[in-house]
Specification:
Structural class: alpha/beta
Shape: globular
Radius of gyration: 21 Å
Strand order of the largest sheet: 3-2-1-4-9-6-12
Helix content: 40-55%
Number of strands: 13
Largest sheet: 7 strands, mixed
């Protein structure tokens, strides 16, 4: 066992969580699943596979991961999402990292490569993020933002980069992806309102085509042919919804203000 804790946040992930846990349960003696109210048996599945299951109502991405961090017993933490799988090559790289003692950096970036339905492994041109996922709890913590999923490192903390990628099975189906992105756009609109951010109305007209191009070419969805076109459209629609909901809220708030002013002057 490595001197690290693995934590996962989940809700209704019984169809995907098993593969996530099985891939890492031989790496750690402290595997935590923080569940926010699953109704599909996620909790029982995680428990049967040796995870320590803790319920915590959903407060947003950053706060939920911060809560999960607090449940971990080891100073080193590895965070995975419930739709991510550590391949054998990455598990071997993690073992090698700790083989000679304390790793050279207090944090490590790990590539996360998308795998779409119908694919057995990441496409050679798959879009890959490289966030910090392995880190010392005393040198970094997840952001408290409800929508931004990132580890904030303390000043001076350096991050290395591992060679092997996490396999990210992010899409169950196009419909499920769009439902998930629609819910996320609600949270993004909430966050913009809470932070007092105002996005100009002209963005409504360019957000969808601009983000389609970003996903199709910038994130290389074109490499997946027709399916890549469809997932790029879903991404663009979700970004459009974020701006559309933000605009609608501002419009309704302005309308309420006009009614209030007219009521006070009548």
């Amino acid at each position: 066992m490595l001197p690290l804790s693995v934590f996962i946040i989940a809700r209704n992930e019984a169809d995907r969580l098993g593969a996530t846990i099985r891939a890492v349960r031989d790496l750690t003696d402290d595997l935590i699943v923080v569940d926010s109210g699953s109704t599909d048996g996620t909790q029982a599945l995680a428990d049967s596979l040796g995870a320590r299951v803790i319920h915590h109502d959903w407060p947003g991405y950053g706060p939920q991961k911060r809560f999960a961090e607090e449940q971990c017993r080891h100073p080193w933490l590895l965070n995975l999402d419930a739709d991510e799988v550590v391949p054998d090559t990455l598990a071997a790289e993690l073992r090698a990292l700790f083989a000679t003692g304390e790793p050279a950096h207090p944090a490590w970036r790990i590539g996360i490569a998308e795998i779409f339905p119908g694919e057995a492994k990441p496409h050679p041109f798959a879009y890959t993020l490289h966030p910090v996922r392995l880190y010392r709890k005393d040198r970094g913590r997840y952001s408290s933002s409800p929508v931004f999923d990132r580890v904030d490192l303390e000043p001076g903390a350096t991050a290395g980069r591992l060679k092997t990628k996490i396999h990210h099975f992010s899409v169950r189906s196009l419909g499920d992806q769009l439902d998930k992105l629609n819910r996320y756009s609600d949270q993004q609109a909430d966050d913009l309102e809470a932070r007092g951010v105002v996005i100009p109305s002209w963005r409504v007209f360019v957000e969808l085509p601009g983000n389609f191009l970003k996903a199709y070419f910038g994130r290389r969805h074109f490499a997946r042919g027709t399916y890549g076109f469809l997932t790029a459209m879903n991404y663009a629609i979700s970004r459009h919804l974020r701006i559309a909901k933000h605009y609608e809220r501002r419009r309704l708030a302005s309308h309420r203000d006009r009614l209030d002013r007219s009521g006070r002057t009548s």
